[in-house]
Amino acid sequence: MSYDAVVVGAGHNGLAAAVHLAAKGWKVAVVEGNAEPGGAVKTREVTLPGFRHDLCAMNLSMFAGSAFFSQYKDDLIAQGLGFVPAADCFASVFRDNTYLGVSTDLEKTTGAIADISREDAAAWRAMLSEFGSDAPHIFGLLGSPMPSAAAAKVVWRAWRQKGTGWLYDTARMLFASPRDFLDARFRSAKLKTMMAAWGLHLDFAPDIAGGALFPYLESMANQAFGMVIGKGGADTIVKAMVGAFEAKGGELILGTSVEKIITSGKKATGVVLTDGRRLEARRAVIANVHPKLLFGGLVAADAKREQFDRKVAGFRAGPGTMMVHLALSALPDWAAGADLKKFAYVHIAPDMEMMSKVYAEAAAGLLPVEPALVVGQPTAIDPSRAPSGQHVLWVQVRVLPAEFTGDAAGQIAGKSWDEAKEAYAERVIDIIERYAPGLRGKILGRSVFSPVDLERENPNLIGGDNLSGSHHLDQNFLFRPVAGYSRYRTPVDSLYMCGASTWPGAGTGAGSGFMLAKMLAR
């Protein structure tokens, strides 16, 4: 069969590319090896019937604020897309059984900060005011191909409006570590800890250069705009994108993998499926696939591509992740206060020393004594995800080794994740129990996905790395995934990459797929 474009992988970036190209009149097929689309954005009943758990991604704020959603909002809503806003966005709990959180009510947020430091409350307000004028430029840069004339225009407009000093200050932030950025602006260790926890989402311990941007953006964006999750589950965006794609004439092929990408001369011309079918691609093959999988098997080796292939082979993964899904009879009773039950996210990463320690232990190939936890409480926001009066808990265990040689606590004897995952999940629940006594008595069902399980579920999550590659400075911006190939093209003509391994990186914003499709559709 013949198409204008074949998209390999039905993650949200691949689907965004497919929707836009189909809307521009291209004949497009999307091929997905799994029986369901979505990549890392899936919702399933993995514990008990009636309890719907987001398998990996839960927070859809990036998608709701994306350029793709802005352009296709009506199409997606017509296909059933639904968001549920969270006014109480995220919080961190501390060892003294207190907490600090960010809500869309500025007075509520700054009142809690002022109880710790009035000076910091004023500094928070000042930062939010600056964010209001900074955000269009920063998000404009994140929403432009890298490099591009569009990115240059963003920088030029910022210079015209904000001056040279602002450009220097912004550049300093892009290169700063979370600790240095936060120490320069706030006094309270608790406030700095609450913000720095976001760095761990993108492979940034407190003292790693380049890690300041995400804590700044997440903290300010949640304060200004709030957080949203999917009505009934994060897969609402995937269902809506598939519906919009098929309504525009696109074809979705599920349950059959791509065995290889066909090339003729220097050009990609189609794909061969594992069932033997050949799909011709007249204009583009788009791989929503980790570059190591793309150039480690799907594309035939080529001696002329040796240097590129070597760089791809050296593309570093971020830390591994474990997911622990719980079906509960009631929400956790947080010792820090009942109001914590209202928050979408509760970070259990109580100080920067702990964040540095867990990162060092994981990097040394050890199971961390005290992993960083992101405890999602989606049914506090969207009760439709569980039977009446009951709840689901979404626990993301961050900064783990893909493979390990031992346990930093000396308690777990298993040498593989298949042997150790249940014991490590017990450690995770013990940690939550410290801050929410009685949690174990509320557990009705449990499902654990180790880093290895996540890779089995989605091969793009190599070693359980849900970032599809570390976001350290040498693998970000112009260098993602490989210097000279940050604009989605590859050394093979008509073969393009998108997804979390490409600029602007991980998250649910669909940025790479949408930007690539716009470039192709021109």
Give a structural overview.
The chain has 522 residues and is an alpha/beta fold. It has 18 helices and 20 strands. Strands 1, 2, 9, 10, 11, 12 and 20 form a seven-stranded mixed sheet that branches. A seven-stranded mixed sheet has the order 7-6-14-16-17-13-19, sandwiched between helices. Strand 10 and strand 11 form a beta hairpin. Helix 4 crosses helix 5. The radius of gyration is 22 Å and the shape is globular. The two termini are 24 Å apart.
Highlighted features:
522 residues; alpha/beta; 7-stranded mixed sheet; 20 strands
Q: What's the story with the biggest beta sheet?
A: 7 strands, mixed
Number of strands: 20
Category from helices, strands and their pairing: alpha/beta
Q: Report the portion of residues in β strands.
A: 15-25%
Distance between the termini: 24 Å
| Count of helical stretches | 18
CA radius of gyration is 22 Å
Shape annotation? globular
Low-confidence stretches: none
Q: Helical proportion?
A: 25-40%
